Amino acid sequence: MNKTEILAPVGSMETLKAAVLSGADAVYFGLGNFNARRNAQNFSENDVKQAIEYCHSRGVKVHITLNTLIKDTEIKDAVEVVKHICQSGADAIIVQDLGLAKVIKTVCPEIEMHASTQMSVGTLEGLYELKNLGFTRAVLPRELSFEEIKYLCEHSPIDLEMFIHGALCMCVSGQCLMSAVLGSRSGNRGLCAQPCRLPFKAQKGTGHDLSLKDLSLIEHIPELSEMGICSFKIEGRMKRPEYVSAVVSACKKSINDTYTSLVRKDLSDLFSRSGFTDGYYENELGRDMFGFREKENVQSATKELFAKYASIYEKEQARFNVSLTFQGKIGEKAALNAACNGHNVSVHSEMLCEAPINRPISEERIVDALKKCGGTQFTVESIKINGDVDYSLPVSVLNSMRRSALESLEKLMCGQAERKLNPAPIPTDISSKNQRKIYCRFDNPNQIPENLDADLIFVPLGTDDKLIKDNGYGVELPHGMFGNGEKVEEMLLKSSATICLCHTLDAMAVAKKCKKKIVASPSLNVFNSLSMDTAKNLRINEVIVSNECTVENFKKISSPIGKGITVYGKIPLMLTRNCPIKNGKTCAECKRESEITDRMGIKFPVRCHFGYSEILNSRPIYMADRLHEIPNCDILFFNFTTETKREVANVMNAYYNEEKPQGEFTRGLLYRGVE
């Protein structure tokens, strides 16, 4: 079995110590405002060095999360954070933003860069793109099955990490705009308000049809490790230290084949939402995966249970074997050498060894004094005494020498070679040509009016190829590809389309492999000028920026390739692999077109494609009367979803005439933005 890394979440110094002393092999935590749990206590720049030294001296690695999207106005601050992390000795940085990835690989190529699950990469094609970008590890989406994970492990060019326990979002990580659109608190910016945990109802559903039970795959760690997963990640940077200790301990038990149903019950009692699920892993999706935080779940976390797991990290645990060599001589200071994991330290007594008045100190007393390492992370493997013991030395001196040697050894073990830092990249300063091309995307070709005046039209992959060829349409690759990379590639190779609309790195990689031109959709989460530079390097031809980008932010984005913005459409709020409508209807009853209703009675359309579902906003973005406020824009992007052919024609006429909106509409996040 491969070495299994237990990667624990940390939101404070207290939790960090709980994780380490409970047996975690690595920890991850946030720094400042550029991480996906900004509401956690997190760490200040002054705390980071102390935290890293504490971990490294105990053989524990430190991964720091910078896994949010950054604005152009924040690039300078983000660069300084990157520099501080690299100089602090952290082992890896977890990243979402393509521009920030470019900063890290330019400023400090030595540090490992891990792709956050927020990057939504879950295919082999996407993993190769991550490798080309300089990533050495990827955190897989939680939605993958056993067979899909196994396939990736067998072929991946980089290391793979996966979440093993904790909260399970309904939406694929990095693809959720629900919190942002409903309350301007963005999950991609670290402030998700979790509106999905509130009542959302599908017809005949559970009543909480966007809320899944917590994930738990702890019992599967041995087989996953055998497959090749190198790191098992626990979710919960905002959880209590006792919770982190309990989950780390449970993971260790699974590795040692001592994980039991009683341990699992403890975890469920500490925190769960109607229990746990492994539905994605077992490829058994459906109603049984859904759950929410009930009264019984809260009451099960007793003081006695917390105390049980708090006791695990009350004392330092021995982690390392140390070899000691002691020598003394009358008239000289005694010397003690300590060796551990290739490190050596030597200390000397403050007083001289003296001739004995009655009898010399015995070897037994020296050994007894030196082997007392309780309360430290060391255990003595061997003690060697050089020379004759014909001198006198107080036991208190021996104790002091032992403590000093182990403290020095601990400091030496947490040492980090200084990293060389390079100047940060400078965004390309190119303004838009402002050609104002019109791109339209349709759910199906039956929505397209005749004589539609648009520069480019996208229809779904799989549309009749004669229609594509005769009209010069582009094709939209599936938003959720999961294990279907090869199938999508096969379909695309048969298509006459020369250009693709790609939502993720997975789709982009397939389009590039098939030698198609690429337009990146808002779901690729391009948010700043440096990400635009990276997009060009990825051979993307044009980019529609993130739907979380404001008009003001858009103005600041310079780009060497064409850039566009969504000016119409019911934008996708969630990409899900577990359809909420199936909680009450079959696919035949639904006909792939249904809706989910929130507690205020607002209805959100649900559309299914290619084995995944998209939950759309209840109202379309409308900007026909305010297009003049969006300068430096190459592409106006129209996203048609539920509209009929006549409604599409009316919308386009309204835009050609710059008419004011009628009926229900929204400006999206174009003005109010996200926190």
Descriptive labels:
675 residues, alpha/beta, TIM Barrel, 8-stranded parallel β-barrel, 22 helices, 30% helix
What is the tally of beta strands?
28
What is the topology, as strand order, of the major beta sheet? 1-2-3-4-5-6-7-10
Structural domain count:
3
CATH architecture classification name of the largest domain: Alpha-Beta Barrel
* pLDDT < 50 runs, ≥5 residues: none
CATH topology of the largest domain: TIM Barrel
Name of the level-1 CATH class of the largest domain: Alpha Beta
Instruction: Write out the CATH superfamily name of the largest domain.
Output: Aldolase class I
Description:
- With 675 residues, this protein is of the alpha/beta class.
- It folds into three domains: 266 residues, Aldolase class I (TIM Barrel, Alpha-Beta Barrel), CATH 3.20.20.70; 94 residues, no CATH class; 168 residues, TIM Barrel.
- Helix content is 30%, strand content 21%.
- It is built from 22 helices and 28 strands.
- The strands form four sheets. The chain has an eight-stranded parallel barrel with strand order 1-2-3-4-5-6-7-10, surrounded by five helices.
- The chain is elongated, with a radius of gyration of 29 Å.
- The two termini are 44 Å apart.
- The model has no long low-confidence stretch (mean pLDDT 94).
